[in-house]
Amino acid sequence: MIIIDKPYIKEIDNKCRMSANIIIDEKSVEIWFEVDKAYGKYLTYERSDAYVIGILSYAMRNGHDIKCEQPMSADLFYQIDTYLIDAVYKSSKSLHRTKIITDVCNEKLETANAVGTGISCGIDSFHAVSSHTRLKAEDFNITHLAFNNVGSHGEGERAVNLFNARRSLAKKFAEEYKYEFVESNSNIHDVIYQNHFLTHAYTSSFAIYCLRKLYSTYYYASSKTFAEFDLHNNEFRSTSNYELLLFSIFSISGLKIYSEGANSTRLEKTIAVSKYKPSYNYLNVCTQTAENCNKCEKCIRTLVTLDAINALDNYKSVFDIDYYRKHRQWYFRNMLRYKRIKKDYNEVYPMLKKDIHILTYFMAMLDMFKYSMIKHTPQGIKNIVKNLIGRK
Ligand SMILES: [Zn+2]
Fold first, then answer.
1. Cα of 300 to ligand 1 centre, how many Å?
2. What digits encode the pLDDT tens for the residues 166-190?
């Protein structure tokens, strides 16, 4: 059993923190979520909603029911209890059918009607921003950019440095283009251990619901299309596969969450972003360094896509385009290798095929053979080889 105590608010220096004690099998941990003082009034301590969403996947994976000391919103409870838990449970082999024991509340919460999205400065993120700027239907234009630390930035010194660099870039973008910047921090990923890849839509929705009194609309930048919806064996797969279900459940009276960009392919999204001038100085897709490294898989994927749509020159200030052009065949060689394991390249490859040299295909085949050998070589043999060549 997991018991969620009543959330409470406290101020720490210039921050405002919402905390709740969570008792898991009689052991108590505090889960907090913190924002700048200016956003403190939007922290939604009146409901258990955020905490239920934040720990639901953990509860289902670890055989727990959930008891709330503070009521849940009636519609959210109904949707989670009636549809979500059942559907997720029945499409898995190992999850627990969690029961939620709670009072419910029908009373409406006042909101500031903010329209938000997360800002990472990547393709998906800029697609959300560029698609919701200067719309005729003004209520759908983004007003707030959120930078949430709920587990997506990793651990260790390198991750902290990357996190700080990404935050600075996102904040600078928000300031230059006159968006409100909502920065948040939380320890949820430290005290409730969850694989971020498998649970990110839950933890991101935790952050949205902590500020339930701020948002009326939130665009969650999706990395998969609606056509890829798949709930089967969901306990082993990214929540991206069933966001369509999750966000329909997490959308309640007064708060609508959209799976933004899920109607477009990566190529279509990149084309849209390449027409959005503010992205030219801010696009940041790298998983390795604060500035785009030009060489990691995400940098390679973005560069070859920009090449395919003839938009490389727009991004001279964020990528080393001269280097790319000088080493174009090296990028194609990697594209051929990644294409075998990631369908993201399937749209781009036919557009660049005519420029790929025969030798590049040959080198890519050698790469694939090499990686296959490494992958299938038992660790014991790898160790013997390392010892023979004096490497540790
Ligand atoms: Zn990179």
1. 7
2. 999 999 999 999 999 999 999 998 8
Residue 318 maps to a domain: yes
285 C-alpha to ligand 1 centroid (Å): 7
Mean pLDDT of all residues in 250-270: 96
Say what the pLDDT of residue 95 is: 96
Expressed in angstroms and rounded, the spacing between residue 371 Cα and the centre of ligand 1 is: 20
Ligand 1 centroid vs 3 CA: distance in angstroms? 42
Structure tokens at 258: 């959209």
Examine the domain organization and report whether 231 and 302 are in the same domain: no
- 150 Cα to the center of ligand 1, angstroms: 22
> Is 392 among the domain residues?
no
Asked if residue 249 and residue 292 are part of one domain, the reply reads: no
Distance CA 119, CA 141 (A): 15
Mean pLDDT along residues 50-79: 97
Give a yes or no: residue 102 inside a domain.
yes
196 and 57 housed in the same domain: yes
Domain annotation covers residue 305:
yes
φ, ψ (nearest 5 deg) of residue 342? -130, 125
Cα of 301 from ligand 1 centre, angstroms: 10
Q: What is the DSSP letter of 258?
A: E
Cβ contacts of residue 350 below 8 Å, gap of 6+? none
173 and 72, same domain (yes or no): yes
Kindly state whether residues 342 and 228 are assigned to the same domain.
no
Rounded to the nearest whole angstrom, what is the distance from the C-alpha of residue 317 to the centroid of ligand 1? Answer: 15
Whole domain around residue 57: which residue ranges? 2-260
Please report the DSSP string for 233-277 in residue order.
TGGGS-GGGGHHHHHHHH-BTTBEEEEETTTS-HHHHHHHHHT-G
Which of 261, 360, 270, 359 lies closest to 307 in space, CA to CA?
270
Q: Is pLDDT of 103 > 90? A: yes
Specify whether 31 is located in the same domain as 140: yes
Examine the pLDDT at 333 and tell me if it is beyond 60. Answer: yes
Q: For 342-356, what is each residue's pLDDT tens digit?
A: 888 999 999 999 999
Structural domains of the chain, count: 2
- Show the CA angle centred on residue 321, arms to residues 319 and 324, nearest 5°: 110
By CB atoms closer than 10 A (0-12, 13-18, 19+), residue 273 is: buried
User: How far is the centre of ligand 1, averaged over its atoms, from the C-alpha of 86 (Å)?
Assistant: 40
Among the three residues 215, 242, 260, which one is the final residue of a domain in this structure? 260
**Do 128 and 248 belong to one domain?**
yes
| Ligand 1 centroid from CA 177, angstroms | 25
Q: Do 242 and 302 lie in a common domain? A: no
